[in-house]
């Protein structure tokens, strides 16, 4: 299978380049061993772009992102750039990418690897085999709604306010992503809001139900209030498969679900936009963690969140499920073999560097293919 698959890599700052390098090795391996070639373009983002160009994302790099089939993003930020004005802070680079690419669906898996079940904050038997996918609406809701602000009232008191707002199309497009994903998994969706106290939640529930009945009747749909969902996630997390929810609840619930799996260094994510006429979605893949300045430059970072983000890219942008499975299986087997970076270290395991973890993944891919 040889096709023109274009990929923009934006390693960024801190450990971003270190973990991105390990993905580059897998891409090279795939070209050699699976005859899959990506046309890889690399660019600067965040503090690295600011240092070179005075902006965290140049128009040129933005155009490259718009033209690529997928963007693989490392991490941005660090103490060196903490005092920059808001408009050129490293994070602005990522925010612009999300906004201009209109990435409205944020996918956050919470997957427990058997070898790491002990690392969860919950009892191992509650999380063993856990595999949840949270779909968070990313471009609407209370983080963007108008009016917003802080005002001073006639009595001198100050008032801060934000607006939770969703249109039917915003709800339907993210719900459709969740239903489509559920069909490839165990066919179950929990839609989460607070319809008991919020009108936006009432509309959310009605629109999700309507879409379900019209187009996805074969998927099992349950509605759940967000507070109950938070409780259920830490009580019996395995009842969930796909959870779809708004921006605010998704922010909180995805962090909560993530910690069921143990380490920040293991968590991938994907952000998807609307499909174009040819069915291609703009997409950005990134680890959940940041640039980890405390360990940057020392070959200590766990590259697995980045590698698993790459696997998501294979699955969601390129329909290469078999290759995605292969990469995920390599990660699983390497962990089962007792190889660990320091962040996921446990008794009896072998502590390795970023590069050595990369070596182990490549060796395992060789074995599996
Ligand atoms: P962080 O995720 O960078 O680090 C939190 C802790 O987890 C640190 O102790 C770090 O060493 C550890 N850690 C994170 N990723 C790891 C990995 N792959 N392997 C081993 N250990 C890992 O979050 P923090 O410290 O709050 O932020 C540091 C910088 O990163 C800040 O400038 C922040 O703005 C930026 N940041 C960027 C993000 C992005 O680019 N999407 C997301 C979060 C933070
Ligand atoms: Mg968060």
From TrEMBL:
It is found in: Cytoplasm. Residues 6-361 form the Isopropylmalate dehydrogenase-like domain. Substrate binds at residues 98, 108, 136, 227. It is an enzyme of class 1 (oxidoreductase). Its main location: cytoplasm. Its EC number is 1.1.1.85. Keywords: Amino-acid biosynthesis, Branched-chain amino acid biosynthesis, Cytoplasm, Leucine biosynthesis, Magnesium, Manganese, Metal-binding, NAD, Oxidoreductase. PROSITE patterns: IDH_IMDH. Belongs to the isocitrate and isopropylmalate dehydrogenases family. LeuB type 1 subfamily. Catalyzes the oxidation of 3-carboxy-2-hydroxy-4-methylpentanoate (3-isopropylmalate) to 3-carboxy-4-methyl-2-oxopentanoate. The product decarboxylates to 4-methyl-2 oxopentanoate. This is 3-isopropylmalate dehydrogenase. It comes from Lacibacterium aquatile. The gene is leuB.
